[in-house]
Design a protein that fits this description.
The complex is a heterodimer. Chain A is mainly α. Chain A has 14 helices and two strands; from the N terminus they run ααααααβααααβαααα. Helix content of chain A is 80%, strand content 1%. Classes of the chains: A mainly alpha, B mainly alpha. At the A-B interface, helix 5, helix 11 and helix 13 of A face helix 4, helix 9 and helix 11 of B.
């Protein structure tokens, strides 16, 4: 058993070492950019997983926090200053705005049933999209705008490491958060709302806390995202952004943070490769069909996603092994 | 005065189209507790299939029949293969129907291409009437309003006067009880799902000549409007859907004229207000 765990740990460390060494051994810019993108969306997907996987609420408005972070950083870089210090200020501001918005939306809507909550968040995200299109003095409307980024972040390799470190940091933070007593209450509300309520926990409060944390982290990923593009437009508020996070989380496995990372990787790589295949056959331009079908099949047949299913398989195997061991011992005794 | 009448007719026509889309969604939710996120995609499929049949046969009526059939068949397949396995699990329902919406709207682009398609008004509905006061009424808009009213009355009769309607209404109130009385609720589910899908497809088809073009994203756009209507009206209520659809249609057309900046947000604000005050909607079927 212990041997097994360390095997997976070794694999994880090997992957991390590989990702650290990658910029020094390979000079493929596109791979580097793709991985940077994966790390950013992994943060976004992990924040979504906190809602979907750990708290058990489906939000269709997660893009609004992503967009808030993206626009706060974009506008700050463009209109005030684009030094490294001001980048940190813009991230902090974006997370603060996201916290305020997610708090307000949360206390207004989290008491609703899951269906209504999903729709209400969809509507709120829609309002933000409209706001970003109409408030032209700040957002410059639909076309968006380009801006300068801090000098350090110009170097793709440096930025790759920054984002990689950010992803690991968020992972450790969320790992700590979800295994804290507070995180356990969240998982209890997911499993059985009434029982948690009757144990004396105010379910609404815990859900609001969860959505505030998720919103802040989504804003963080949004402000990292726009740095890679050095450009921001209203597409950061689009429903597709939320859907992508949803797909990543489901494919990787809900309720597993590693799943969100793996889901983000699979999603971005699949997108990249399948779009490349569009040169071979036009059907690959409609890659969403393949992906959507896969997603439906996963929801139906692999409700735990890639990582969840793997864990279940590993657990079942270790149980079987132990059963065999016990049988063996019993056999020996009887002999 | 002319402006007021025009805006009212416009608003009513849009409202009726949204009603066609929303009523199926509302009944499906009320009866089966399934929020079908793929409903908007059925609307778009109805539009494309109907307009295609219409162009091939040059008959608007056959086009409408084509749209209705497309909707009913898609609804049947959807209920049988996608929704049935996930009855009772809200989160899985939301996720799976969302996936269906993605696939269906992309498939639309594969079949008919990604560009928007222009549609013409059938000959017998072209043109407009001039009233004495100088108000111009476009025939097609009146036609949509008439169709919407007919469907509303038809549904009303179906639900209130027939045995099937009685079962559906009872099912909305208490599913288990109906089942305990020896009625195969599965079959009723399937019928309502097909009916709702066919009506959505009809709405899409009628939208074609109304707006002049159909495009692949209309399913998502109108799907959101339909959700808003269902939330405002209350799940499972036909009159609620009609009332809310007309409200949304009218407020949309008046706002677009008087306060264009607000017009995009007005529906969402309406929904937010209703949800916060009455989370079950204005006319919820469940007491």
């Amino acid at each position: 058993m212990i041997k097994n765990v360390s095997k997976y740990k070794i694999i994880t460390y090997l992957i991390i070492a590989y990702l650290i060494a990658l910029p020094f051994v390979s000079d493929s810019r596109s791979t580097l950019l793709l991985l940077t993108q994966v790390f950013i969306f992994a943060i976004f997907a992990m924040s979504y997983d906190l809602l979907l996987g750990y708290t058990g609420i489906v939000s269709f408005g997660h893009a609004m926090f992503f967009g808030i972070g993206a626009y706060t950083t974009g506008v700050y870089m463009k209109d005030i200053s684009s030094s490294l210090g001001s980048y940190f200020i813009s991230v902090a501001l974006g997370m603060l705005f996201a916290a305020i918005v997610s708090f307000l939306v949360g206390i207004l809507s989290l008491r609703l049933k899951s269906h209504f909550y999903a729709m209400l968040t969809l509507a709120f995200a829609g309002l933000f999209l409209v706001l970003a299109e109409k408030w032209r003095t700040v957002t410059r409307g639909n076309d968006g705008f380009t801006f300068n980024v801090p000098e350090v972040m110009y170097d793709r390799v440096v930025f790759y490491f920054i984002v990689f470190a950010a992803m690991i940091g968020v992972y450790l933070l969320l790992k700590r958060f979800t295994s804290s007593p507070l995180g356990h209450v969240l998982q209890a509300t997911r499993e059985n709302e009434q029982r948690t309520e009757s144990l004396g926990y105010n379910v609404l409060t815990y859900r609001v806390i969860s959505s505030v944390v998720a919103g802040m982290l989504a804003a963080f990923s949004g402000s990292l995202y726009v740095i890679t593009l050095r450009f921001v437009n209203t597409s950061v508020f689009a429903t597709e952004v939320t859907l992508n996070a949803l797909l990543m989380t489901i494919i990787g496995g809900v309720g597993t943070l590693v799943g969100a990372i793996i889901g983000a990787g699979l999603f971005e790589f699949a997108h990249h490769w399948l779009s490349d295949l569009a040169k071979v056959h036009w059907i690959f331009e409609r890659w969403i069909i393949l992906f959507g079908t896969l997603y439906i099949l996963i929801v139906m047949f692999l409700p735990y996603g890639v990582v969840g299913t793997f864990r279940k398989w590993r657990f079942d195997r270790s149980v079987k092994k132990q059963v065999k061991l016990i049988e063996k011992v019993n056999d020996n005794k009887s002999v | 005065m002319d402006v007021l009448i025009n805006l009212t007719v416009n608003g009513l026509a849009t409202g009726m189209l949204i009603f066609l889309l929303a009523v199926g969604l509302s009944l499906i939710f009320g009866l089966m507790d399934v929020l079908n996120f793929a409903h908007g995609a059925l609307f778009a499929w109805g539009a494309y299939a109907g307009v295609w049949v219409y162009a091939q046969t040059e008959s608007f009526i056959i086009g409408i029949i084509g749209a209705l059939l497309t909707g009913a068949i898609l609804g049947l397949l959807l209920e049988k293969f996608i929704v049935q396995p996930v009855y009772g699990n809200h989160i899985q329902q939301i996720l799976i129907t969302l996936g269906v919406m993605l696939v269906l709207s992309e498939l639309l682009k594969v079949v008919w291409g990604p560009n928007q398609i222009a549609t013409v008004t059938p000959e017998f509905l072209q043109g407009s009437w001039m009233l004495d006061s100088g108000v111009i009424i476009i025939k097609y808009r009146l036609f949509i309003i008439a169709v919407g009213l007919l469907i509303f009355l038809g549904l009303h009769l179906l639900l209130k006067k027939t045995k099937l309607g009685l079962i559906v209404r009872a099912g909305v109130m208490d599913k288990e009880m109906v089942q305990a009385l020896g009625i195969n609720i599965r079959k009723v589910f399937m019928f309502v799902f097909m009916l709702g899908s066919a009506l959505a497809a009809l709405g899409g088809m009628l939208l074609g000549p109304y707006s002049g073009v159909i495009h692949a994203n209309m399913g998502f756009e109108f799907g959101i409007l339909a959700f808003i209507v269902v939330v405002i009206g209350g799940m499972g209520s036909v009159s609620g859907s009609a009332f809310a659809a007309i409200l949304v249609g009218l407020s949309g057309s008046f706002m677009a004229y008087y306060f264009p900046a607000l017009s995009l947000a007005v529906n969402m604000l309406l929904m937010v207000a209703v949800l916060i005050i009455r989370p079950t909607g204005l006319f919820a079927a469940k007491g």
